[in-house]
Automatic annotation (TrEMBL):
<dbReference type="InterPro" id="IPR000215">
    <property type="entry name" value="Serpin_fam"/>
</dbReference>
<dbReference type="GO" id="GO:0005615">
    <property type="term" value="C:extracellular space"/>
</dbReference>
<keyword id="KW-0646">Protease inhibitor</keyword>
<dbReference type="InterPro" id="IPR023796">
    <property type="entry name" value="Serpin_dom"/>
</dbReference>
<dbReference type="InterPro" id="IPR036186">
    <property type="entry name" value="Serpin_sf"/>
</dbReference>
<feature type="domain" description="Serpin">
    <location>
        <begin position="57"/>
        <end position="472"/>
    </location>
</feature>
<keyword id="KW-0722">Serine protease inhibitor</keyword>
<dbReference type="InterPro" id="IPR042178">
    <property type="entry name" value="Serpin_sf_1"/>
</dbReference>
<dbReference type="GO" id="GO:0004867">
    <property type="term" value="F:serine-type endopeptidase inhibitor activity"/>
</dbReference>
<dbReference type="InterPro" id="IPR042185">
    <property type="entry name" value="Serpin_sf_2"/>
</dbReference>
<comment type="similarity">
    <text>Belongs to the serpin family.</text>
</comment>
<dbReference type="Pfam" id="PF00079">
    <property type="entry name" value="Serpin"/>
</dbReference>
<protein>
    <recommendedName>
        <fullName>Serpin domain-containing protein</fullName>
    </recommendedName>
</protein>
<dbReference type="GO" id="GO:0045861">
    <property type="term" value="P:negative regulation of proteolysis"/>
</dbReference>
Length: 473
């Protein structure tokens, strides 16, 4: 997969490393030929994106219910989890497939002819992982994408302050790498059709290992794959050897690195500022806080009693959206999260316009680990984890089991993330703030209380990263 060069370390960036793990007592099955699918369509692709992003809201609420009032952050990767679930969908028998479709709110795909999930998802993954600019298959971008700044253009001349044009480095592409790995017990699969579909449509690596006799070597193989897939940022996903009865591991890894379009200040200007996890009438904590000034996509929503600001990365394919309730506290953020469906989030982003702003935002480095098995069971996905059910198909039966159904189930599903958002400033950050101080901007976006964070690939609308932040320390 081609990737653009990574920008100089002097340029600020947001980094995202995350990975998920599924331990499965079985193997995947795929029928048919990968060539016999209808062409991707906008309508089906929109439904798949909506499914992933709506799953983000459902999982966010479920993780919030589990964490109660003690959680500091509830950040996870919807696209990573979603790709895992679409891959499991290819292996599911009737009852499990039905539950997966229910959880994804894609019930229309229970019957043949409702559309093609693999082909459309593959197209979305290609646009996402290759960081392709433009409207893509969804044929839509937020209207703020076409704006060049906050200043008027008169007689074809842009009167943007020249001091903002300080950056002479060429714009580098974002680095996006989503990888699915399927690690099978030796001899459990011989389907060339499935191997082809997994590689071509899900960008999945298929590899056979020996869990039963060489669990340590199997763990080393999986950890090596994760290390390579994240360009060395994640050294391992498994800290202990797997049980010798494990027959398949599905792992996915997402590596994302990009530079900000408008820089935060240089690190030496970041300083501790109060942050109020449960509102400004409760005790505060001190967190390292970054500052910036510039022209940002922004919208104040009276319906949601909240404000949203976008922090685009330099080629404007991916943006970090911060949704901040007015006078934010934990309770208000929970209420906002419940209201913010996939459709409502799209509507909110579509209403954004460019505005001059001074920004205050906490520097963050978050690491989270989740038991997705428990969360998904609460959402209605149960047979997948039931060892008494034959809920996953197999394509290479042995003579010993050819005449009876195998009980194939998922034993564990773990999701881990590592997210860093910092300034990594160049000289340009201070120049921007100086330019902004010449006139008072209409927007003062100070993030001093709980907020929702969504890192979104705008051409596909897929959420790389999403969740509530109550305490960024």
């Amino acid at each position: 997969m081609p990737y653009g060069a990574i920008a100089s370390a002097k340029i600020p960036f947001g980094r995202l490393w995350l990975y998920g793990l599924v331990l499965v007592g079985g193997v995947l099955w795929c029928g048919g030929n990968a060539q016999n699918y209808n062409a991707p369509s906008k309508a089906v692709s929109e439904q798949l994106v909506g499914a992933i992003n709506e799953l983000a809201r459902s999982l966010g609420q479920q993780l919030g219910a589990t964490g109660g009032n003690s959680s500091k952050t509830e950040l996870f990767s919807p696209v990573s989890i979603g790709s895992m679930m679409f891959l499991l969908l290819r292996a599911a028998n009737r009852d499990t497939r039905s539950e997966l479709l229910d959880v994804l709110q894609l019930q229309q795909y229970r019957k043949p002819g409702g559309g093609n999930i693999p082909k459309n998802f593959a197209r979305l993954l290609k646009e996402f992982t290759h960081d392709i600019a433009g409207k893509g298959i969804l044929e839509q971008l937020p209207s703020w994408h076409t704006a060049t700044g906050c200043y008027p253009t008169i007689d074809g001349v842009d009167y943007e302050d020249d001091d903002d044009n300080y950056l002479d480095e060429p714009i580098q592409p974002n680095v996006v790498q989503l990888a699915n790995g399927i690690f099978l017990q030796n001899g459990l699969i011989n389907s060339t059709n499935f191997v082809k579909l997994a590689k071509e449509l899900y960008q999945a690596q298929i590899e056979q290992v020996n869990f039963s006799e060489q669990p340590h070597a199997a763990r080393a193989t999986i950890n090596h794959w994760v290390n390579e897939s994240t360009r060395g940022r994640i050294e391992e996903i498994l800290s202990d050897d797997l049980d010798t009865s494990t027959q398949m591991v599905i792992a996915n890894a997402l590596y994302f690195k990009a530079t900000w379009e408008t820089f935060f200040n240089e690190p030496q200007f970041t300083r501790p500022q109060p942050f109020f996890p449960d509102g400004e009438d409760h005790p505060s904590i001190m967190v390292p806080t970054m500052f910036a000034g510039g022209c940002y996509p922004y919208y104040a929503s009276p319906e949601l009693n909240a404000r949203i600001m976008a922090f685009p990365y330099r080629n404007r394919t991916t943006s970090m959206y911060i949704i901040l309730p007015n006078e934010s506290n934990r309770s208000k953020l929970r209420q906002l999260q419940a209201k913010l469906s996939s459709t409502e989030l799209d509507r909110l982003i579509d209403r954004m316009r460019m505005a001059k702003a001074i920004v205050q935002f906490p520097r963050m480095h978050v690491t989270n680990t989740y038991d997705l098995k428990r969360a998904l069971q609460q959402l209605g996905l149960r047979t997948l984890f039931d060892r008494t059910k034959n809920n996953l198909k197999i394509n290479a039966p042995t003579s010993r089991t050819a005449n009876r159904a195998r009980k194939l189930y998922v034993s564990e599903m773990v999701h881990k993330i590592d997210l860093a958002i910092n300034e990594r400033g160049t000289e340009g950050g201070a120049v921007t703030i100086t330019a902004m101080e010449r006139s008072l901007p209409p927007v003062n976006f100070r993030v001093r209380g709980p907020f929702l964070l969504a890192i979104r690939h705008d051409p596909t609308k897929m959420l790389l990263f999403y969740g509530a932040v109550f305490d960024p320390s």
